[in-house]
């Protein structure tokens, strides 16, 4: 059972991931330094002179609030180790470089003010450090210095910015939990911020000691941390809360010039799929080097926000809903005595038939228009009558089915595709006249 103080997280369902740092200047994602083997000194010089003249945390917070996001996670330090806050453990930070301000503080204050929960992303990795790229056993003093710096910076972030709701680690590779002493740090973090949710990127297999091919890049621990973090895919974790992170573009997280943006419908699809499988979506945007959020993102995010204003009850605060096979129509979520049918495909027929449920339905409401639809329970199925022929929402229409108790699937209909067991399909198979 999830602690009371952590329950807001799965209920929130939808967070905004913000990847931003001096790498935005290159317009080729957040890992350009390493992936292009750029000259370290050139990169650092350009980073130090980076000055995002149009950065306005309040404008970001408005985009997030209008988009229907309930929380956000900002990269306070990515693998390039440039810190977006006033840290005393390195001078490679936005206070001592060109911006001359604490970008994390502005972000935290603006997002809190807009009513959002606040998360901080921090990468263990430090691509500017020889110790990071080396086997710690070769120079333990250098390694310990690097590790202590990460611990100190995390403590700083959890001490100087008020309440932080989510902490999102990344970049453990190529060093395992024991090297980072990530469990020691997590313990300290919970002392500083007892309610904080911490993700699971706290471990990695070490290429310095592990057999080749056994390296876990993303650093997802199955046991440590509060929530799972599938990246670029949506896969339910049955044992704990989880959040899938997805880009709104192709695959880079930091700003990428000339990008092809995913349509609003596709990004909403991710949100509905994650909700239907009992997880969150952390949707990413990479703000421009000048500090503005790309117009393409604002446009798409606002469309999803409009949809959520009308259909949000099918997402926020719901629980896993894929209790039956619904692939031919879309996604399902649950809340108490209600089942939400989220239509990816609007079939345009006047009558809907739902055969899989064992609980009779009492009422149906088309959230997209607010109208109630007629419900009949007969012939071992639920019929919804008076469905509009024309799709009633430019994105996904939603019908709320209300029951007298939490709806249950029939024995044969439990799980998607009947758990791939042909025996469960026998009552239906028996209706086949002859071979
Ligand atoms: O911040 C985004 C990515 O930059 C970050 N996670 C999301 C949220 C991420 N960092 N690493 N990975 C995802 C997985 C890939 C890791 C590796 Fe590598 C590719 C390990 C070795 C090659 C990245 C590049 C880490 C070292 C070099």
From TrEMBL:
The keyword Transmembrane does not apply. InterPro entries: FUC_metazoa-typ, GH, Glyco_hydro_29, Glyco_hydro_29_N. SUPFAM superfamilies: (Trans)glycosidases (SSF51445). It is an enzyme of class 3 (hydrolase). Belongs to the glycosyl hydrolase 29 family. It comes from Rubellicoccus peritrichatus. This is alpha-L-fucosidase. It comes from the Bacteria. It holds the Pfam family Alpha_L_fucos. Keywords: Glycosidase, Hydrolase, Signal. Alpha-L-fucosidase is responsible for hydrolyzing the alpha-1,6-linked fucose joined to the reducing-end N-acetylglucosamine of the carbohydrate moieties of glycoproteins. GO terms for biological process: fucose metabolic process; glycoside catabolic process. One of its GO terms (molecular function) is alpha-L-fucosidase activity. One of its GO terms (cellular component) is lysosome. Residues 5-313 form the Glycoside hydrolase family 29 N-terminal domain. Its EC number is 3.2.1.51. The record marks 245 as: May be important for catalysis.
